[in-house]
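Design job #97: recover the sequence.
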């Protein structure tokens, strides 16, 4: 029988039986782990002393280090790639793996996987829902310098109303947005959802008077 991962409870049992002078073979028979006992003591004993808590700590540390080296297993990369092409976000993949089987893969690592694929000429980045998100923000920042200066803009007018219509999917419903400048630099919007056959509602009479 091959090696089986021991639980912390079994490690306490091993410690207790060793303290009573039981042999490794006898302990293996009692715990039904056979050759696992000799390997456990060889790997997790410190200064020829076996301590169950120290053994558990050493075992957990090795498992964490082993997982770091297996993150890029081809089977795991293939599975993540399939989920990305099915329009899962890296955050969704990371959360699903943690909840489903306890495997923790950060979404940052998945993004690094996408970047590496792009450097190699792959197109996995196209599967992202917002592939140009960062570029878009950079574009906004770079275009800010082309905006008109405040002193060059049209003068502010109180009680100034405007409206716009945005049609929904299939043109079944629309949104009518009414905007009013009540005070300088303060824009109040009123959102009304209307049917396609309806016309935009009449604008209410402004009750705000222009400041003297």
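Job complete. Output follows.
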């Amino acid at each position: 029988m091959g090696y089986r991962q021991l639980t912390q409870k079994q490690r306490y049992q091993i410690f207790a039986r060793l303290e009573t002078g039981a042999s490794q073979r006898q302990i293996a028979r009692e715990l039904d782990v056979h050759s696992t006992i000799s390997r456990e003591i060889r790997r997790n004993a410190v200064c020829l002393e076996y301590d169950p808590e120290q053994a558990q700590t050493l075992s957990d540390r090795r498992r964490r280090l082993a997982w770091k080296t297996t993150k890029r297993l081809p089977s795991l990369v293939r599975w993540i790639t399939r989920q990305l092409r099915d329009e899962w976000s890296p955050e969704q993949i990371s959360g699903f793996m943690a909840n489903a089987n306890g495997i923790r893969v950060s979404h940052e690592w998945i993004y690094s996987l996408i970047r590496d694929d792009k450097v190699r000429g792959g197109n996995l980045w196209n599967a992202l829902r917002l592939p140009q998100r960062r570029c878009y923000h950079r574009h906004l920042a770079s275009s800010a310098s082309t905006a008109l200066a405040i002193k060059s803009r049209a003068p502010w007018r109180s009680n100034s109303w405007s409206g716009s219509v945005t049609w929904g999917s299939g043109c079944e419903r629309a949104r009518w947005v009414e905007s009013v400048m009540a005070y300088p630099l303060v824009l109040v919007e009123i959102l009304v959802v209307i049917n396609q056959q309806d016309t935009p509602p009449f604008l209410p009479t402004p009750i705000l008077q222009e400041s003297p």
